[in-house]
Amino acid sequence: FTGIIKALEQYSKAIIEQNVKIYVRRGGPNYQEGLNMMRGLASKLGIFIDVRGPETHMTSVVAMALGKAVATNLGEAEDASASPFQKVAPAPKPVPPAPLKPASPK
User: Fold this and answer.
1) What is the DSSP letter of 26?
2) pTM (2 decimals)?
């Protein structure tokens, strides 16, 4: 996380001006230390960083960032209508191409 933290510190003014929201989901070795570093950075810079651990599924974080789900007290994303991806409109049916006309003799 040190490289990410340096970049966020360097661009913090633009992040604040543009009202950027950052979502972090981390698991694996030393994840707690990395998450604590990100929480500290959010407080230090005054920027929005939603920090989640391995108890939250990665796609849930994406749904939260898109406003398709809300965080519960367990750190999981929940949507009353089930999967946050069910709200996506289905793709339109393809329109078949018009038949080709034979070339007229000259």
Assistant:
1) -
2) 0.62
